[in-house]
TrEMBL record:
<comment type="function">
    <text>NDH-1 shuttles electrons from NADH, via FMN and iron-sulfur (Fe-S) centers, to quinones in the respiratory chain. The immediate electron acceptor for the enzyme in this species is believed to be ubiquinone. Couples the redox reaction to proton translocation (for every two electrons transferred, four hydrogen ions are translocated across the cytoplasmic membrane), and thus conserves the redox energy in a proton gradient.</text>
</comment>
<feature type="binding site">
    <location>
        <position position="61"/>
    </location>
    <ligand>
        <name>[4Fe-4S] cluster 1</name>
    </ligand>
</feature>
<keyword id="KW-0004">4Fe-4S</keyword>
<keyword id="KW-0411">Iron-sulfur</keyword>
<dbReference type="GO" id="GO:0048038">
    <property type="term" value="F:quinone binding"/>
</dbReference>
<feature type="binding site">
    <location>
        <position position="64"/>
    </location>
    <ligand>
        <name>[4Fe-4S] cluster 1</name>
    </ligand>
</feature>
<keyword id="KW-0520">NAD</keyword>
<feature type="domain" description="4Fe-4S ferredoxin-type">
    <location>
        <begin position="94"/>
        <end position="123"/>
    </location>
</feature>
<feature type="binding site">
    <location>
        <position position="106"/>
    </location>
    <ligand>
        <name>[4Fe-4S] cluster 2</name>
    </ligand>
</feature>
<dbReference type="InterPro" id="IPR017900">
    <property type="entry name" value="4Fe4S_Fe_S_CS"/>
</dbReference>
<feature type="binding site">
    <location>
        <position position="103"/>
    </location>
    <ligand>
        <name>[4Fe-4S] cluster 2</name>
    </ligand>
</feature>
<keyword id="KW-1003">Cell membrane</keyword>
<keyword id="KW-0830">Ubiquinone</keyword>
<dbReference type="InterPro" id="IPR010226">
    <property type="entry name" value="NADH_quinone_OxRdtase_chainI"/>
</dbReference>
<keyword id="KW-1278">Translocase</keyword>
<dbReference type="GO" id="GO:0009060">
    <property type="term" value="P:aerobic respiration"/>
</dbReference>
<comment type="similarity">
    <text>Belongs to the complex I 23 kDa subunit family.</text>
</comment>
């Protein structure tokens, strides 16, 4: 009898816990139509900024690549010319790539940059079915000239990353169909594939000799 009463009591205690949650505020949100506020120092997708006059801030010094603990950044610098001046300095980044799959979003690249060129934005929605789409080349990282210069990392209110100009809207329209093929590593792989295909396919002289 005592055992049965204990079981009934345990049953009521269990149901009381269940019913108590039925009247509490639900912790879930209707994502993606509703999104929570980011943490004050949230690190999301990278972005290359410009100056007020539209010139690129990046001077191709490669400090971000050197400071990256995950070796996720590749920078190839080039000299500015009087006819085509990309940045105020002597050099600019001819190629700039970030492998977002390797990146650990530590923000060391942002701290190492002497011109505040590379920043980590609050944007994080970059899901894709292709691995190559996560290698972001310069054309996908660089802020469009008409998007504005945005806010420097140290000037954001309460340290909360702001929407850098209208970049979030502009980047949503970027075509990423090229994916990995549009990057420096992608071009290297394509050249290697062409070389293998040439080795595997018989040359015309060989076919004529066999005939």
């Amino acid at each position: 009898m005592r055992k049965n009463l204990f079981n009934v009591g345990a049953l009521f205690r269990g149901f009381s816990t269940t019913f108590s949650y039925a009247f509490k505020k639900k912790p879930t949100i209707e994502y993606p139509s509703v999104k929570k506020q980011h943490a004050p120092r949230f690190h999301g997708l990278h972005e290359l900024r410009r100056y007020d006059d539209g010139k690129e801030r990046c001077i191709g010094c490669e400090l971000c690549s050197i400071s990256c603990p995950a070796n996720a950044i590749t920078v190839i610098g080039a000299e500015n010319t009087p006819e085509d001046r990309r940045s105020p300095g002597e050099r600019y980044a001819a190629r700039y790539e970030i492998d977002e799959l390797r990146c650990i979003f530590c923000g060391l690249c942002e701290e190492a940059c002497p011109t505040d060129a590379i920043v980590l934005t609050p944007r994080f929605e970059m899901a894709d079915y292709r691995r190559g789409a996560f290698v972001y080349a310069k054309d996908r990282l660089l802020v469009p000239p008409e998007a504005g210069v945005g806010t420097a990392p140290d000037e954001r209110p309460n340290g909360i990353p702001a929407d850098l100009g209208s970049v979030a809207r502009a980047k949503d329209t970027v075509d990423i169909a090229a994916g990995y093929e549009a990057t420096n590593r992608g071009h290297i792989l394509k050249d290697q594939r062409r070389g293998l295909a040439a080795l595997r396919s018989p040359s015309p002289s060989t076919e004529q000799g066999d005939a």
